[in-house]
Design goal:
two-stranded antiparallel sheet; globular; 15% strand; alpha+beta; 234 residues; 12 strands; 4-stranded antiparallel beta sheet
Length: 234
């Protein structure tokens, strides 16, 4: 019997929700985090998810979502194989002593290599290349986490950028997309704007959501749906 009280603050996403949020095929989400059988052998998940399976269905926590986002980007934009990534995750986990090392403030990437910061006590910490096992130069690495809040690990994701109000925060609404000030799910706000004919009119019925939050919610939901964010009448 699972203790769902322990799930508070972790975030909760199905494979289908993770697929939609990350624009990643749901089959990949299930294979990468649920494991699979291929070529007459069993492949374990890339890492152990934060949540147990419920009724044999895969569940992801917020850190799973964020690490999956980074892994998907690396696979899409580099020639690094999934098996190399699997090994890198093990090395990085041991170096950082964190179950989701690619979500920590000590993880960096230059788009081609994956690094873990070590020697943080110095002014110019070195970077350990977890794939090539070579040292890189800290000054040449560009920041990797421009749209997230970082403490020891990623704590919030701003999928439209930090200048917009949409946020995924595992401490709020189980990590569902909401607008930061109102705390109202973006799906509810976008639907309200559609029903009331405009973001401005809908904001009158959904305080404390503002017209700006309404517009951000619409833009986000349309991006999830894969359609351009058409301008609605004011």
């Amino acid at each position: 019997m699972d203790n769902r009280d322990n799930w508070l603050g972790i975030g909760l996403y199905t494979a289908a929700e993770a697929s939609r949020l990350l624009h990643l095929p749901v089959a990949k989400v299930r294979r990468w985090l649920g494991g699979y059988r291929g070529a007459e052998r069993d492949y374990a998940p890339l890492w152990t998810p934060q949540l147990p399976k419920l009724d044999d269905q895969l569940g992801l926590g917020f850190l799973d979502l964020m690490q999956l986002r980074l892994v998907a980007r690396v696979v899409a934009e580099t020639d690094i194989s999934l098996q190399k990534l699997r090994r890198a995750l093990v090395v990085a986990r041991d170096l950082v002593q964190h179950s989701h090392p690619f979500t920590t403030a000590r993880f960096r990437t230059d788009g081609r290599r994956l690094f873990i910061e070590i020697g943080r006590e110095s002014d110019a910490p070195q970077l350990y290349d977890v794939l090539g096992k070579q040292y890189g130069f800290h000054r040449i690495i560009e920041p990797s986490f421009k749209d997230v809040d970082l403490e020891v690990e990623i704590t919030r994701w701003w999928p439209l950028g930090k200048q917009r109000s949409v946020v995924l925060d595992p401490q709020r609404s189980f990590g569902a997309p909401i607008t930061s000030n109102s705390g109202i799910p973006t799906a509810a706000l976008a639907l309200a704007a559609e029903r009331h004919g405009s973001p401005r009119e809908a904001a009158r019925w959904y305080p404390p959501a503002t017209e700006r939050e309404m517009r951000d919610a619409i833009a986000f939901e349309r991006r999830l749906a894969g359609s351009p964010a058409r301008q609605m009448a004011a």
